[in-house]
Amino acid sequence: MKQEGAPINVVLASVDSDFMMDITQDLQAHPQIKVIGFASNGEAAIERATKMAADVVLTEYSLTDITGTEIAKRLAEDSPGTQVFVITDNITGQLVQSCKAVGIKEVFPKTGFSPKEAANRIAAEVDNARREWSEIVKKHGAVEKGTGPMGVQKTKTEYIARPITQTIVMTHNTKGGVGKSTIAVNLATAIKISPYFSGQRVALVDFDCGGANVGTLCNISDNDCYNRNLATWEYVREEELTPGDVDDMMIDGPNGIKILPAPLNQKVAEDINQDTSAELCNKILRVLRKYFGIIVIDGAPNLSPTTDAAMEHSTHILLIANPEGQSVKQLARTVNLLRPTPDYPDKPDMTYILRKMRIVLNHAQGESKWDLKPDEIATTVGIPIFAEIPHDEVVKKALHSEGNKQAVELEPDGPFAVAIKRLANDICGAYPNGIGNTGTNGKKGLFKKLLRKG
Ligand SMILES: Nc1ncnc2c1ncn2[C@@H]1O[C@H](COP(=O)(O)OP(=O)(O)O)[C@@H](O)[C@H]1O
Ligand SMILES: [Mg+2]
């Protein structure tokens, strides 16, 4: 097997030769990727990949003769060094699971397919396998030729037929400090690191121009935020944008999440809060909806045109509440503004926005005897509690962690991560097989903590 960083030979397979031509150039913009063959059906793809000892087959899932799963099974026998990646328009949890069960490395949605992102993902997987391989060789000396470390993976076969549908989720509260940014960033991370959703394009957008927290939480340099932010989209013409342009106007964040931060410059940020900004934010979200399966928006702490635009586009509006009076009162105010008022029959009907709202009770501060009860909060706001996120020191720990890990990654089985993953599952089905062995987590966590102290 080749060394890390060496060229990666790719065979493309699709019935649509225009599509293959379109993506070839962009794939090859990656310094390692070389497209060495095309195939219009599965048999041809297998033959080409085997003969040419291709490192990768990138194929549409449904071909005229066989599917991507079949290709992966056959290549595991005929050409075990070849990795398979698929592209499909009909992603379901079931499909992703059956693909991964036969060793397919990633399932990319065809809508919004980004050759650049796919190339990065492919290169990472191939280099990873090469690294593992060279370690095995180092440890055990020469290994039988032709067998790679990429055997067929055995996974649980619980199938989920639910389609992966586009999800646009925003955090909202006109009060600051309730956890809007924390939840937005961790939710985006939890979705992207789910094995079912790793092939999905996930965007994280900061609409809080006064706070600009996303850049900080994701460790993006000021220079990057300065060059690529909401304001840099002002003069682009949306009908002329290619997937490559969209990628270039966003920042590569941790775990392959694409980030669009708020501007850091106070003056630029103020301009965005003016009335003209509604059009800018609408444009940004219209474009992102074309290219991303998941969009997470860190909402602004106000009822500005930016918030308007985000609420219009969102499929889920998470009202972030803390168990104290102020944060709940603010939410009740927003909700009341949107409610129909019998005295004003001409008030525009906003019930479609209300229907997207759910309360997430976040314990941003430690427990206090003055804490409001969940049912008091639900009654005051008039919307049921959808999720409860515990107070967890891992949130603070993540702020100082090396390697820029978010809280959900730092302690993936801890109470905060479990609650966020559950939320991710309730929103878009990101964890259909459950989240760890949550039943014993409390105990495990406790013992871990005790041992750490001792
Ligand atoms: N569940 C939680 N556990 C512990 N600390 C939290 C939690 N949620 C938020 N925090 C902390 O609360 C503060 C406010 O959170 P932040 O996300 O910045 O709020 P907002 O975006 O609404 O202004 C931050 O210091 C954050 O680390
Ligand atoms: Mg914030």
Task: Give a verbal description of the structure.
By secondary structure, the chain is α/β, with parallel strands linked by helices. The chain folds into two domains: 8-140, Response regulator (Rossmann fold), CATH 3.40.50.2300; 167-453, P-loop containing nucleotide triphosphate hydrolases (Rossmann fold). The protein is built from 19 helices and 13 strands. It has helices at residues 17-28, 42-51, 68-78, 93-101, 115-140, 180-193, 213-217, 222-227, 243-248, 266-272, 277-291, 305-313, 325-338, 351-354, 374-381, 394-399, 407-410, 415-428, 438-453; strands at residues 8-13, 33-39, 56-60, 83-88, 106-109, 167-172, 202-206, 251-252, 258-260, 294-298, 316-321, 357-362, 385-389. The strands form two sheets. It has an eight-stranded mixed sheet, with helices on both faces. Strands 2-1-3-4-5 form a five-stranded parallel sheet, with helices on both faces. Helix 3 (68-78) links the parallel strand 3 and strand 4 (83-88). Helix 1 (17-28) packs across helix 5, helix 2 runs parallel beside helix 3 and helix 11 packs parallel to helix 12 (305-313). The model is unreliable at 143-159 and 437-454 (pLDDT under 50). The structure holds adenosine-5'-diphosphate and magnesium ion. Magnesium ion (MG) is lined by residues 180-181, 208, 211, 213.
Spell out the blueprint of helices and strands.
Elements: E1 8-13, H1 17-28, E2 33-39, H2 42-51, E3 56-60, H3 68-78, E4 83-88, H4 93-101, E5 106-109, H5 115-140, E6 167-172, H6 180-193, E7 202-206, H7 213-217, H8 222-227, H9 243-248, E8 251-252, E9 258-260, H10 266-272, H11 277-291, E10 294-298, H12 305-313, E11 316-321, H13 325-338, H14 351-354, E12 357-362, H15 374-381, E13 385-389, H16 394-399, H17 407-410, H18 415-428, H19 438-453
Parallel strand pairs: 1-2, 1-3, 3-4, 4-5, 6-10, 6-11, 7-9, 7-10, 11-12, 12-13
Antiparallel strand pairs: 8-9
Adenosine-5'-diphosphate binds at residues 176-182, 213, 362-364, 389, 391-392, 395-396, 416.
